[in-house]
Structure formats: C-alpha cells, structure tokens
C-alpha cells in the first residue's frame, strides 16, 4: 500500500534551486543522472505541496506577496494542480518517475484519474509502470466516417454517378424496379432518375396531393 502524504509543513524549495530543474529544459533533464532525476521529481512535488499549504494558510495579500517575492507569479497554477493531483502520495513515491510525466498526469488529471487510482495500490512506482498505465488508459481515436460518394471519375476527366448495390432480404426494390423496366421498356437509370426527381419535388413541396 502507498503511504499517503501526512499533514504538516513541507520543506520549502528555494527558488534558484527549483528553477534549474524547469521542465522547459528537456535537453538538460535528459542529460541528468538517474539519481539527480529522482531529486528533480521529488523537488517538484515538495514545492507543489508547500505552495498549496501556503495558499491554504496565508491571507490572499500574503500569498500574492509570496509569489511576487519568489518570482512565481503566473507559474503557481500548474504546481497547485500537481499538489491537488498527487495529494495522496509522498514525493518519495515518484522518485523513479521522470518530471515530465508528473506534469502530464497533473495537466490531465481528470482523464488519468484511473491511472492515479491504480498507482495507490502499488507498492513500487516507476516510469515503466506509469507509462504502461497511461498507454492502457488512452482510448483509440475513432476514425472519422468517410463521406459516401456516388461519383466515379472517367479517364477523360469527366465523371458519372454509380449507385451502390442495394441489399434487401425482401428484394422489394430490385423486384419493383425490374417489373417497371419490363412493363415500361425503360432502363433502370431512367426510372431511378424519374424517382429522384419526384422525391426532390415532394421534399420541396411542389407535389400536390389530390386526395
């Protein structure tokens, strides 16, 4: 079972120490050793928890002054979101998870809530485990339905319409069309064209019902 973060004041993270681990420096992060990477992740979480506690206990004026003094104005929201997302964990729990994954989970905490719930049941959390859970959570994008088209191209650049095959258990449409062709000596194309013209007129209110 995971150890939930207990109450109390977290150790504050100095501004200059935290800024050197900014997630906006991916190249720098990728070159860090695994041990340093663990320190970065823990520092991010400690900072987020500490900032959330300051907002909870300080007055609005004091809190704004803190942000101004630390140079965190405009940056605080993402860390407050991290604190809300990982409030049931300890910073040490994610020592084996890279920083950008922490930001990813926090930014889409609603989407990844099942992942976070599953992590609570694990005794060890690492990057591979988290990535695996995230991958399983992603739902495949549904393919956009292709627009049906009856048009076909000719080699000379022209085009013609081709009605797809009509499949019916009763075969009513095909039987009726064949009967009309036999009785009237018309082609299927002529009958279909007439039927479409009549339907169009009906939809436009041009047909008068004499009954």
Could you explain how this protein is built, in words?
It is a single chain. Helix content is 53%, strand content 3%. It has 211 residues and is mainly alpha-helical. The protein folds into 2 domains: 15-137, no CATH class; 151-203, no CATH class. The longest helix has 24 residues, at 34-57.
Order of helices and strands: HHHHHHHHEEHH
The strands making up the biggest β-sheet line up spatially as 1-2
- Structural class of the secondary elements? mainly alpha
For the biggest sheet, the summary is: 2 strands, antiparallel
Helicity range: 40-55%
Strand residues, percent: under 5%
How many strands?
Answer: 2
Average pLDDT metric: 79
Number of helices: 10
Distance between the termini: 78 Å
Radius of gyration: 33 Å
How many domains, in number, for the residues?
2
Shape: elongated
Low-confidence stretches: 1-32
What is this structure's SSE topology?
Blueprint: H1 15-19, H2 26-30, H3 34-57, H4 60-70, H5 76-85, H6 99-107, H7 113-119, H8 127-137, E1 151-153, E2 159-161, H9 172-184, H10 188-203
Antiparallel strand pairs: 1-2
């Amino acid at each position: 079972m995971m150890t939930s973060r207990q109450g109390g004041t977290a150790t504050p993270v100095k501004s200059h120490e935290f800024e050197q681990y900014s997630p906006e420096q991916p190249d720098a992060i990728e070159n860090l050793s695994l041990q340093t990477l663990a320190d970065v992740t823990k520092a991010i979480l400690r900072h987020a928890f500490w900032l959330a506690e300051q907002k909870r206990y300080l007055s609005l004026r004091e809190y704004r002054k803190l942000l101004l003094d630390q140079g965190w104005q405009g940056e605080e929201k993402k860390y407050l979101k991290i604190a809300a997302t990982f409030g049931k964990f300890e910073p040490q729990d994610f020592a084996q998870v890279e920083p950008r994954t922490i930001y990813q989970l926090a930014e889409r905490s609603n989407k990844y809530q099942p992942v976070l719930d599953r992590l609570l049941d694990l005794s060890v959390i690492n990057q591979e485990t988290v990535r695996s859970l995230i991958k399983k959570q992603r739902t495949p994008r549904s393919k956009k339905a292709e627009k049906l088209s009856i048009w076909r191209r000719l080699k000379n650049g022209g085009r013609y319409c081709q009605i797809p095959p009509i499949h019916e258990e009763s075969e009513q449409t095909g039987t009726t069309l064949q009967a009309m062709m036999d009785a009237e000596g018309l082609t299927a194309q002529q009958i279909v064209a007439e039927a479409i013209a009549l339907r169009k007129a009906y939809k436009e209110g041009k047909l008068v019902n004499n009954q």
